[in-house]
Amino acid sequence: MGRIRSRARNALNSLGWKYKINLHKRYFDIGYGITNYLKFLIALFGAYSFVAKIDMRITLVLAILYMVFCYVLGWWWINRDFYVAEQEVSNQFNLFVKEMRKSLSRKV
Which of 9, 86, 102, 108 has fewest C-beta within 10 Å? Predict the structure, then answer.
């Protein structure tokens, strides 16, 4: 499996900068999806900071740290194969995938 993955990754790397931008975007999107509810805590803290006239730089630093955390978590999620497991769980309930697996198993 590792050899196949490295071949696929090498082929995709040949696509250049478009692939790399979308890969990094995907890392962030995955992490953001997992930690989606934390953004509300940051927003509440920002609103409180505004009302209480506290320095808004603290909220800005929290938001930047949250963005970095989303990226790192997304990278970890994909590289530790949690994303593959997540897709397989989704496939267990997808009627199209169930039907395709049945028809392929009959042919083999």
Answer: 108
The pLDDT of residue 8 is above 60: yes
Dihedral of alpha carbons 81, 76, 87, 34, sign: positive
33-86 tens-digit pLDDT: 999 998 899 889 989 988 998 888 988 999 999 999 999 999 999 999 999 999
**Token pair of 81, please?**
């194969």
Q: Is pTM, for the whole model, over 0.85?
A: no
d(CA 90, CA 80): 18
Between vectors from CA 107 to CA 83 and to CA 88, what angle results, nearest 5°? 10
Helices (H), 1-108: 2-13, 17-34, 38-51, 57-79, 82-92, 95-107
Token representation of residue 42: 């940051």
Among candidate residues 97, 108, 107, 31, the one with its CA nearest the CA of residue 66: 31
